[in-house]
Amino acid sequence: MARLEGRAAIVTGAASGIGRASAELLAQEGARVLAVDRPGSDLTFETQGVSPLEADVTQDTSPGTVISSALERFGRLDVLFNNAGVGANALAADMTDEAWDYVQAVNLKAVFRLCRAAIPHLIQSPAGRIINTASVMAEGTDYGLAAYCASKAGVVGLTRTLALELGKHGVTANAIMPGAILTGMTAASFARADVAEIWAKKSVLRRLGQPVDIARVALFLASDDAGFVTGQAIAADGGLTLRV
């Protein structure tokens, strides 16, 4: 039997990278998946069980639209995977309020608002799950990453608090902290062989991560196998942080 047979999931940022790999893998394991991404994104899937929805997660109406769409199509909600995110690279002294606010709006505020909208329905599930994509930069940093690191550290803090508050309802909340993963967000940088080689060497496994590497962690957290795992920020980084 598939590990998520009969369950319903939402995956944001599902048009590419980690989100696409996760939507497909969860569906392959029996879930019906609402794949959410910005209007104009490629939300064409060959995998059965994936249903697309165009929505900008930063819009005020998006939480209600996303949750109601899942309920209308599936009649239930068991898994919320907040994966949509954006990068940013600007020194703090040079960063504008607008740039800061946008990163927080996508990476943190949208995560909170979708979780808030989903909670009344997740607590009705026999196996409610919240999974949030953070980053190893939630616990580390580098030049130009003030907004990004702050947003991802916020995701981890939010996730832990949700785990505390929702535990009495049997709902788990966990974060995934990817390392250097070859996704749409990083494709331009890793297209340079020298940059890709440097980051591959930083991993003790000597390779860049692939979206499916993170999707497999999401599948674990969504499944019954992770029924006693909550409030955790799991680094899926190929051992990258062992060298920091």
Q: Helices, strands, pairings?
A:
Elements: E1 8-12, H1 17-28, E2 32-37, E3 50-54, H2 62-74, E4 79-82, H3 97-122, E5 129-133, H4 146-166, E6 172-178, H5 187-190, H6 193-202, H7 211-222, E7 233-236
Structural overview:
The chain has helices at residues 17-28, 62-74, 97-122, 146-166, 187-190, 193-202, 211-222; strands spanning 8-12, 32-37, 50-54, 79-82, 129-133, 172-178, 233-236. The chain is globular. It has a 7-stranded parallel β-sheet with strand order 3-2-1-4-5-6-7, sandwiched between helices. Helix 1 (17-28) packs across helix 7 (211-222) and helix 3 (97-122) runs parallel beside helix 4 (146-166). The protein is 40% helix and 15% strand. The protein has 7 helices and 7 strands; from the N terminus they run E-H-E-E-H-E-H-E-H-E-H-H-H-E. It has a single domain (8-243), classed as 3-Layer(aba) Sandwich (Rossmann fold). It has 244 residues and is an alpha/beta fold. The model has no long low-confidence stretch (mean pLDDT 94).
Label this structure with key terms.
244 residues, alpha/beta, Rossmann fold, seven-stranded parallel sheet, 7 helices, 7 strands
Q: Outline of this structure?
A:
With 244 residues, the protein is of the alpha/beta class. The chain has helices spanning 17-28, 62-74, 97-122, 146-166, 187-190, 193-202, 211-222, and strands at residues 8-12, 32-37, 50-54, 79-82, 129-133, 172-178, 233-236. Strands 3-2-1-4-5-6-7 form a seven-stranded parallel beta sheet, with helices on both faces.
